């Protein structure tokens, strides 16, 4: 019984060794191909000269954004802050 188990385990060891040798041979033949491609650098767009219409457009947008902010703040004050203050007082 012991001899049979010992023979069985030796057989398993030989199988594992054979598998290891097979894997070593396969990895020795394996090739990995890596290709590195650099990202294209973004070039800034340079606009020459003074552009008063663009400045006017940017200023108008800023004015609208500021107006929206103040209206939003007023809505928050009326809807949220005022009732909280009334409850606390």
List the helices and strands and how they pair.
Elements: H1 2-29, H2 52-88
Describe this structure in words.
- This protein is an all-alpha fold and 89 residues long.
- It has two domains: 1-30; 52-89.
- The protein has two helices and no strands.
- The longest helix is centred in the C-terminal third of the chain and has 37 residues, at 52-88.
- It starts with a helix and ends with a helix.
- The mean pLDDT is 88.
Helix content: over 70%
Spell the H/E element sequence.
HH
β-strand number:
0
Low-confidence spans: pLDDT under 50, at least 5 residues?
Answer: none
Q: What is the count of distinct domains?
A: 2
Report the span from N to C terminus.
Answer: 93 Å
Structural class: mainly alpha
Choose one word for the global shape: elongated
Please tell me the overall pLDDT: 88
Beta fraction:
under 5%
Q: Please give the count of helices.
A: 2
Give a summary of the structure in a few sentences.
Helix content is 73%, strand content 0%.
Summary tags:
89 residues; 2 domains; 73% helix
